[in-house]
Amino acid sequence: MRVGVRVVVMGVSGSGKSTVGRLVADGLGAGFVDGDDLHPAANVAKMSQGIPLTDDDREPWLRAVGRTLADAGPAGMVVACSALKRTYRDLIRSEAPGTYFAELDGDRALLAERMIRPGHFMPASLLDSQLATLEPLQPGEDGVRLDVAEPPEDLVTAIVDDVRSAVG
After folding, report:
1. Contact of 16 with 104, CB cutoff 8 Å
2. 115 Rama class: left (phi>0) / alpha (psi -120 to 50) / beta
3. φ and ψ at 119, to 5 degrees?
4. 2 phi/psi in degrees, rounded to 5
5. Is 107 exposed, middle or buried (0-12, 13-18, 19+ CB in 10 A)?
6. pLDDT tens figures, 81-126
7. Shortest CA distance to 29 belongs to which of 70, 75, 68, 98?
8. If you ran DSSP here, which 8-state letter would residue 121 be given?
9. Would you call 23 helix, strand, or coil by DSSP?
């Protein structure tokens, strides 16, 4: 069976991961899952209270993200997931080799403004801890880093084109 594309649209909260991820999935003809939906209830409860997650909290969630990508089949899968550290991305890749990462990066003020979303469990107060944790994509990691100040359509085009060229 042919393995479909495996893409993680990554970045801190407010970077547009879900919006861009859905559009990238559409552009690639792949499925889409919001990584927030894969968090255990305990993680959501912590974040809702403004408590940052620990690496131990994140591990089962990151494995679930990787398994979701690995189980996607020939249509492929796009997952919106913060994937802030190289070790987190390595954990995802251990479950789903060949995963491509599209990092959405932006100015702190713009990200904070975007975090004001009614009904979302992630409070803006956690932005600084996410930015402190963030390790941008590093040499040797398959992916691209883009500025979220650009229109979503431009980000999607850049990601889809790069993924298609990467998978040949």
Report:
1. yes
2. alpha
3. 85, 0
4. -70, 135
5. exposed
6. 999 999 999 999 999 999 999 999 988 777 766 566 555 445 556 6
7. 75
8. S
9. helix
Nearest 5°: phi and psi at 80?
-85, 120
Sheet of strand 143-147: strand arrangement? 31-34, 77-80, 6-10, 100-105, 143-147
pTM, two decimals, is 0.89
Residue with tokens 């980000």: 155
Which amino acid, residue 113?
E
For 69-87, write each residue's pLDDT tens digit.
999 989 999 999 999 999 9
* Class of domain 6-167 (CATH, top level): alpha beta
> Torsion over CA of 46, 48, 50 and 53, rounded to 10 degrees?
40
| DSSP code per residue over 33-91 | EEGGGGS-HHHHHHHHTTPPPPHHHHHHHHHHHHHHHHTTGGG-EEEE----SHHHHHH
